[in-house]
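In the current project phase, we have settled on a layout for protein records. A sample record is reproduced below.
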Amino acid sequence: MKTVFEYTKNMEEVSTSYCPGCTHGIAHRLIMEVLEEKDITDKTVGIAPVGCSIAAPRFMKIDMIESFHGRAPAVASGMRRVLPDKYIFTYQGDGDLTSIGGNEILHAAERGEKFSTFFINNAIYGMTGGQMAPTTLIGQKATTAPRGRYVEKHGMPLRMCEIISQCQCAVYVERVALDTPVHVRQAKKAIRRAFDVQEKRLGFSFVELLSTCPSNWGLPPVKAVEWLADNMIPYYPLKQFACPEEVK
């Protein structure tokens, strides 16, 4: 019988610590599949900051380092200088990247740092208890916004791909989602292109992955996937904002 599915060799065989329905695990697997297929597992270093993303080293069988909250791009920039032949990526959540780390990611993009950032956007602070994030949608409830986010008090949710794509040296910027098989396949292609950009030393690459957080959204897993499709994608459209000809 032909084998159609195999365990990803560079994923640790451990039980998940993520909540039921969380799509962090899908993102982990996609990144590890790409590294395996490109045969660069032993040449890659990942940086995971504070947040749900800090669990990534538990699952990814590669060299990884943990950073302070929001500081993964600074750590990756330093690693790029001392490890010029490595593939380097940051794996960051929306509370980390868009809030305390907003300055770090913008300057890394403007400098054209030759690493990749994988940005998990689930529109809320996950690990710390469901507080409102800069990406929380209008009307969406959070522990720090029990009546929901509204413009007059909280401002508009940040669209990071639209912001990052204005940086001239951010050569590859794409937003994908993890809610359906088709979108998951598209997400894997985006992750591959990010590493291709890095391989060719073309500049900074940024992939945003719309994700679920059933526990803090107060929804069962299936309803959370539906909520992502019905609410997040309309505000955060799936789109390739920038891509060099060399990797299209």
Q: What stands out?
A: The beta strands are 44-48, 63-66, 87-93, 116-121, 170-177, 204-210, 239-242. Residues 181-199 form the longest helix (19 residues).
